[in-house]
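Title: Request for sanity check on Ribose-phosphate pyrophosphokinase prediction

Description:
We are preparing a figure and want to confirm that the structure record we downloaded matches what your pipeline produces today. Could someone re-run it with the sequence below and paste the raw structure tokens into this thread? We only need the token string, no images.
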Amino acid sequence: MNGSELRIFSGNSNRALAEEICRTINVPLGNATVTAFPDGESFVKINENVRGQDVFIIQSTCPPTNHHLMELVIMIDAARRASAARITAVLPFYGYARQDRKDQPRVPITAKLVANLLVAAGATRILTMDLHSQQIQGFFDIPVDHLYASPVFFAHLAKRKTDRPLVVCSPDVGRMKMASAYTDALGATLAVIAKKRRTPDEVEALTLVGEVAGCDVLIVDDMTETAGTITAAADKLKKSGAMTITAAVSHCILNETAYQRLKAGPIDELITTNSTPVNPRDLPIQVLSIARLLGDAIIRTNSNESVSGLFQIKGF
């Protein structure tokens, strides 16, 4: 396949990102009608010929998650029935990723179910970023290109100058590998917080391992919805003598509780990406663009070039 066969379409979850990706790689955004009937049923029509083409459908499954997931599945099916040669589902944010294991009796593994839906609809490849857990790649029986937002964060953080030592903190044990990669790239030391989740939106930071007194601290996480984990970690760090606290979170699905916690909490700045739409609301929230990252991956996929060679980060 070559660049002339490339077609990019977008659902309604994050059209601004899709438009920016297209501007970045100088490819027009495809013409598709993605709307809903009065009863809420999604309707899709691709308004141009995609027969034999290499189709990329950009859609984050962010809130309203079920609606955007259905849009994506229906768009994939529409492209398949229009005889597209290859269909890549581009999910800057993969929803349902936290339901990736059976940790209670009689619960589903919904991350696997979503993978089955995408494949059944006709996706032949997945392009995504910063999955909640790496094993989700194995839920697919089709190729998955898994990118990291780390290069975007590194470029932003490298511009900062401070005389104080930097500590990268993992807000829970599950993010240790990510935090370790940041320490290698930024020349920092590592800290970790053990947490206890009391309710789905309430977290207690229990124990800090590492020295943060007199240091600037960077908390790294893959996603936040209520900001419970990162604000609980920030409280613990501030009480332990941290000077400034910055959080770098790949996906921000902020609800009202999150905004209230960020406003009242000790986090000096939250850095995130536009993988989902983010409204800073006059808070110190810096939104970095991943359009170039995803655009380069799309071009390389279309050209059958290596994607992992470009975006693999030391330590991952």
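Thanks, this matches our download. The CA atoms of residues 223 and 251 lie 4 Å apart.
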